[in-house]
Design brief:
Largest sheet: 4 strands, mixed
Number of helices: 1
Helix content: 10-25%
Number of strands: 4
Length: 74
């Protein structure tokens, strides 16, 4: 279980996930996405790439920034 509670507008996890195996990385990206509020931001390190699309609900907003889809945005 996560040690923190609630949803977050921003998560910074820079240069950490690169040290995990690919399965653990995919699990973390999905868990981060579920911990974000709609429209929330995930910032990662330059060496890390997050899968985007329906798998995570995240879209790329730059080289190291990703955003969770906001169902209220058109």
């Amino acid at each position: 279980p996560w040690p923190m509670k609630g949803q977050f507008d921003i998560i910074f996890c820079r240069n950490v996930v690169i040290y995990f195996d690919p399965d653990a990385q995919n699990t973390l990206w999905k868990r981060f996405a579920t911990a974000l509020t709609p429209g929330g931001w995930l910032f990662v390190g330059h060496s890390e790439r997050v899968p985007t699309g329906p798998e995570t609900g995240l879209t790329t907003s730059g080289i190291t920034s990703y955003r969770l889809a906001d169902k209220n945005c058109t």
